[in-house]
Amino acid sequence: MDKATTAELLDFILESLRLIKRRFSGIASSDDFLDSDEGLDKLDAISMRLQSIGEALKNLDKRQQELLLMVANKEYWSKIIRTREILTHHYIDIDAETIYMICDEKLEELEEKILKLQETLH
Asked: d(Cα 83, Cα 32) in Å, to the nearest integer?
């Protein structure tokens, strides 16, 4: 994988995180995802972006694992990639509470790590 492709994937992840944060604003609990069609639309859209982030990281992990390991251990990245697998193959098992927890507790740390990876490319 060349630097341009790596940079594009990192940009895609950051854009996805931005979109998730925008869609998540106004969601105060997991119930907000389930109380209206708008909430369900947000849940679906956020889930799709989380899946896409996992796919991008899966590609980076396959081609440039050493890059990812510069900012976090393999277990950290594996958890995100496994979440992608669940979203892709077991979507019916995903609940609003899990998506809420990811958005509320995990996105900031991921964004910080992706920004650090971007810095290593420059």
From this structure: 21
